[in-house]
Amino acid sequence: xxxxxxxxxxxxxxxxxxxxxxxxxxxxxxxxxxxxxxxxxxxxxxxxxxxxxxxxxxxxxxxxxxxxxxxxxxxxxxxxxxxxxxxxxxxxxxxxxxxxxxxxxxxxxxxxxxxxxxxxxxxxxxxxxxxxxxxxxxxxxxxxxxxxxxxxxxxxxxxxxxxxxxxxxxxxxxxxxxxxxxxxxxxxxxxxxxxxxxxxxxxxxxxxxxxxxxxxxxxxxxxxxxxxxxxxxxxxxxxx
Length: 240
Description:
elongated; mainly alpha; 3-stranded antiparallel sheet
């Protein structure tokens, strides 16, 4: 009788374990604001984030549920425009403000990646990276306005059609930018450089529509000095 009881108990334990293992595990989807989001994270809440950013006018590329570089840059732009800490991480404060703006609970400022004066230009991830490298190589010691102005000059050249048809055409035109020649272009851009590019893409142009800029302390080209100077920011003068 004891033997049968033992066998019964063993069978009961085995069947119980099997039953537990075969019960489907139901994992609740995380919604925007439920957890902190940053580069490398994926899920439904990231998809919500990307759709909300896109609705507000912050470009994220393809909404693919993966928190990548472009989503991070869109988050930083949103944070910068709303007075939040610009770290590219979506905590409770950033998530709450996003949800509030999407739901209409507050004034929404929708940034633009292009302006009417620049036409309907589209910029790839590589374009933005190369623009940030120009800014970092040419103006990392300048004020933020000076950095935005350098990015704007590249975009003004692109829009003019006189310097090439792509961002890379403009940047790599022979002797166009000192940073390309002295290899500082190939340094990794910092956050300020990316923010300056986003500002310029959004329409800001502290240069005043300039096509050229140079440091008057070091420039030796007689031709460049023949250009009409329209502005001065930091160590650079800007001309048309």
